Amino acid sequence: MVRRARPWGIAALLALMLHTVSAFAQTGTAGTADAPAVLIADNVQVTRDRVLTASGNVEAFRGTTRLTAQKISYDQATGKLIVLGPITIKDGAGVTVLASQAELSDDLQNGLLTGARMVLNDQLQLAAVQINRVGGRYTQLYKSAVTSCRICESDPTPPLWQIRAKRVIHDREEQQLYFDEAQLRVRGVPILYLPRLRLPDPTLKRTSGFLIPSIKSSSELGTGIKIPYFIRIGDHRDLTLTPYLSSSTQTLEFRYRQVFAKGRVEFASAITDDDLEPGNGRGYLFGAGEFDLRRNFVLQFDVELTSDDAYLKDYSYSEKDRLDSELRISRTLRNEYIRLSYINFKSLRDDEDNDTLPNDVIDALYERRFFPSLLGGEFRLVAAAHSHFRKSRVDMDINLDGIADGRDAMRLNIEADWIKSFQLGGLQVETRLGLAADAMNIEQDSSFNNTDSGFAPRAGVIVRYPLVRYGTMINQVIEPVVQISWVGGDELAVPNEESTRVEFDEGNLLSLSRFPARDLRERGWSLAYGARWSGDTRDSWSANVTLGQVLRDSAQLGFSETSGLATMQSDFLFAGQLKFNGGLAVSGRTLFDERFDVSKAELRGDWSNQDVDLGGSYIWVSDDETENPLSPISELIFDGGYKIDRFWRANLDLRYDLERGRAANAGAGLIYSNECATIAMTINRRYTSSTSVEPSTNLGFTVSLRGFSANTGQHQSARSCGKQAK
Question: What pTM did the predictor assign?
Fold first, then answer.
């Protein structure tokens, strides 16, 4: 018979028992002390000597706390509380206590649990012969074993790892675990002894202490170890110091992070003394931040600095060969965009001289759109300003070597366009009228006038005729499109400073000017035509294909040979994408002329399922030294991963230069991960070389023991006990 009762004894018993959980848990549950208590048992008795006993499927509830046992007995005269198990206490906040028997004092500041086990945050198990509660704050576990690996009672095999200790103290307030005479064992074999050890419990989100070390072996730096130390400065900022020591280097890495009420910053840095550059201090600094200002403005910055051209690649901090530091203020609204930025560039390439590159760049942009009720349509206004400066003070015309040694440039552009769309039956028509005013100033290049300016009136009409067909197997859409446009005015007598790299693709097929910047403009009449087809089977695959070309009344200066736009009749643009619901996706784009000679091509394929992730790209650029001195370019890029089983995964990446017949980069990795550990082994090889960078091979090895950090929420495969684990 199940009874619910609330005599004085049961109320006292509940107050004591439900508080027991917070005594043995790391943190109590908010509001538990004021919550009503409920006791359910097969039998509840109060004897004449005022001993309350509840037996048979005992369950006690208070707030989110739940206790289950076979028998509970409370003697008011002696103040002893005895619980017979199996006992399970859950506080609803991730702390579980299991025991066979418990004896507690009436104030619950002291007590003893035998045959006990604590489970913290469903991650870390602490088993002990007995657990003592001392002073209301500390929990002492004697002859304990600590692990986050799943333990099967039917399997005598030791867990992958465990920490054996003579005594473990759990500090509830500090959320720390203190070990005395600790042994780290792997498959039951002791491999490390520590007389004292402190680790955070998994419910603690942030605390100072050592992080996971890693071993790194490099052909240039030898074999070394990285030991990061995390410093919690406060709730919203921290510092990580990582000494990196090997036979060839002494390096200290830094990482600082801070979050503000309306922003954040993060900096990564390192200082080095090594054998690669003996006697020269080396280092780098990367930083980024973002802050919300008044009136919806946003301040952003990033800093990229390094001591020498080879440092970032020698230590695998970054693969960038051009650094850019930027300070930007911007605002984005529904009908308005404002941006002001300063950028500093530094090249790490051997074939580039920073004195002759535009190191300092200032950009300003204002865009606004209006919707006039009288005319209808949309009115767009754009004002843009740009300037860049070089360190060199040499006049290009005097130098006569074809290099823009000291040329500086400034420009101002103002554009106004009126756009209106309407429909004539099945035809969709878009008209555009506009005017652009350009002014440019050139310094330190006597081959050009200092200033030049002009106007560029423009007009264009785009006509589309979409055709839709719905079928039982496939839905299809074919959309032919034609644009007739005209841009007037004379070309400014200025050099091509910003539009040196032009991409002809689906995005600018219908543009009035396909130069990426406003320093140059296409002029005269042009006809752009093309068609787009798309199909969708809803449950199998989807695809789209675009074909287009541009015809002009005259050739345009400023376009390179491989841009596909250098002649009156542009190359044909062909692009497409195919996706299967099974995880396969293929996309590509190419430019070819009427003789089917290809100037550029790129192809990308991806395939993924539960076990395999594969991706590959092929890039081809024909010979064009004006755009790329290293052309022709023919590269194959591959990256993939294979899930060998529930625990093992292999990764591979490769970049191969087909034109030169050698690999540029290659890497492989093997990862083992389960519910209690992650082991990662990596190897990377860089084959490229220059006067500042030598080919190198790097090996990495990292072991992470789970259970001593906050739960990431990611699923991890676990050992199965008798049946397959999901």
Answer: 0.80
